[in-house]
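At this stage, I put together one protein's amino acid sequence and its backbone structure tokens, which the following lines show:
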Amino acid sequence: MQFGLNTVIFLGTQEVAYDLLEKRSNIYSSRPRLVMVGECISQGNRSLTLLYGEQWRAYHRLQGSFWSPRMSNTYRELQDLESKQLVSEFLVTDDFSKRYHRYSSSLTFALAYGKRMPTGQEEEVKGVEQIMDNLNMAFITNCNRRLVTLHEHPIKFPQAVAEDCRLARI
């Protein structure tokens, strides 16, 4: 199936998917090149947009060890604490999106840096919100930006798009 400039193949069985993605991962494990988010904004430093290669394998090994079942048992108490706080927050607010954001931010920051985000008003959480707002501005507000993502070759960005890329990286 054609999806923009890319060909997408849908697999009908788990066995075929396993064969292609596990046994032949060096051929099929890469993601499509995303010029806007992968190169312009994240400058090739986000695991979500990395193309298959040495850097992708290094990120994958690191993340795989961190999220393994054995490791996840070590932070089960933290997940339990954050989940209890989330449920109690649901009882007193209808702003579920912000509560989920606080929960995920607190869990991530606690695991990565040893610091919880109990209120969701911490500077770190506000910084993540600003990054997300900048990404939304860069992608959603102008259809021209979507065309950049489909472009396969290095390009010289128009001034307006270049400015949005700069802001999205802040």
About this structure: The first strand starts at residue 2 and ends at 3.
